[in-house]
Amino acid sequence: MSDATFKLNRRAALLSGAGAAIGLTAMTRSGPVFAQDASAKAAATSTLFSEEPQPIYHLPHDHRFHRGPTYMHNDYQEWQYFTLLGTDKKTGDKISAFICPFHQGWVSAHDGRANPFNFAFTNLNTGEFYSAMTLFEGDYTGTAGDPDAEDFWFEYDVSGASGDMNLKYDYATETWAYKGHSDIEDENNSPYAFDVKFTVEAPGYIPAAYHGLENIGWDSAGPGYRHNPQTLAGLSRYIQVPRAKLTGTITAGGREYDVEGDVWYEHQWGNFRNVEAGRYFWGYMRMDDGTAFTWRQYYLGDGWDDYDPGLTRFQVIHPDNTVEYGFGPVFTYTPTEIWTSPRTGYTYPWDGVMQTPVGELYFNTPIKEQETPAGNGFAFIEGYGEIRTGGPDGPVVGRGFVEMVDNPPVYPFKDLPEEDIFMDFSKVNR
Questions:
Q1: Helix count and strand count (H, E) for the chain
Q2: By 3-state DSSP, what share of the chain in percent is helix, strand and coil, each rounded to 5?
Q3: Residue 61 phi/psi, 5° resolution?
Q4: How far does CA 82 lie from the centroid of its chain?
Q5: Nearest to 206, CA basis, from 13, 18, 60
Q6: In this model, does residue 182 exceed pLDDT 80?
Q7: In this structure, what is the dihedral angle of CA atoms 34, 35, 41, 46, given to the nearest 10 degrees?
Q8: How far apart are CA 212 and CA 230, in angstroms?
Q9: Which fold has domain 274-408?
């Protein structure tokens, strides 16, 4: 692959990519430079608003769930989740976990959102996999401290007849805490519980996409993709934390795990529906040499053969925490084997070849059955994956987490007609 295809070098990417997009100028805080360390103020005599690019993200304020007229649409989606690759300190078993509170849609009848919660857990030593999709009946309630104070914090709670979820954030220490449980046990859900916290490490919060907004939506009112950053129509804001350290307990399969490990955190929100009927492949990998990278690739048609390069994104986080962004054919994934779920019949490209700016890599997983059925015709993969060099049987050089979706998005509003579920793009995009 030529250098022209992937133009940003480390220095340029740091200045014109992650840094410029969110204003990563260090101020008085010690430790890693975070996105909330806003750009420098202009001199008193200057006519400039700022001497540096203004952030499109306003952290720590944007860590909270979003509300207000811009977001009061049924295309609205928000989630802030983490994946964990870790170890059970009791036994040494390797585990992966996915913990994700959703905030979706707008139901005018009760002036609120639907609040699903997704849990997935794999014991990589035993091959056990457990998952659940809990739909909380109520909305989140919350409390928060002074948003302009150095000790800013917030906390959310949501509960239902079968479980609860608590989320806390502390700005002073950059620590997140997730606690919750569910007692539901049926063909699509396993009981779970968790009480964990993680602390953000360098490079802190960075944009997931190369221009800060992800081109993720589609417009049923007309051909092509039309987007509006003022209303977030067809777009999402999207930040991530490539490195954080977690400790705590997770209960799955009736067993409590005393876990520690590495977290990858993401927060995404906007007014959008997934493009191309929802068929996409997202993931990240941490390589043994300290490099990390993440991607998303969308597919056209009914299978995994034809991808849409206009919506592909790729990002490299180097060991020195500089960041590079790529898009289009800078990343391609060619499946070599398609796995069909015996539970749902959906297909997933669990084996394939990646062409990336960091070389040709071979992707697979030792445990294919990591599918989460949601119980409403929707299912997806949330699971552990590996990359190898030299061939599909070469040495493992990286480990990470992937999400695969092979079916149209289904929202938990079965009793509402489509015109009440999705907003009218022909009005908000003009």
A1: 4, 24
A2: 10, 50, 45
A3: -60, -40
A4: 7
A5: 18
A6: yes
A7: 140
A8: 14
A9: AttH-like fold (2.40.370)
Q: Do domains 59-273 and 274-408 have the same CATH topology?
A: yes
59-273 belongs to CATH 3.30.450.40: no
Average pLDDT, integer, range 200-218: 85
CA distances from 275 to 15, 58, 221, 314, 411 (A): 30, 27, 14, 17, 15
Q: Which of 351, 353, 330 is nearest to 340 (CA)?
A: 351
Q: What is the DSSP track for 214-240?
A: EE----TTSSS---BTTTTBTEEEEEE
Distance CA 36, CA 33 (A): 8
Across the chain, what does the average pLDDT equal?
A: 81
- Using the predicted structure, report yes or no on whether residue 396 has a pLDDT greater than 90: yes
pLDDT tens profile 62-104:
999 988 888 877 778 899 999 999 999 999 999 999 999 988 8
One-letter amino acid at 313 equals: R
Q: Quickly state the pLDDT bin for 335 (edges 50, 70, 90).
A: very high
Which parts of 179-312 fold into alpha helices (H)?
A: none
- Name every residue whose Cβ is closer than 8 Å to that of residue 57 and which is 6 or more positions away in sequence: 21, 22, 35, 205, 207, 212, 237, 239
φ and ψ at residue 113, rounded to 5 degrees: -110, 165
Any idea where the domains of the chain sit in the sequence? 1-55, 59-273, 274-408
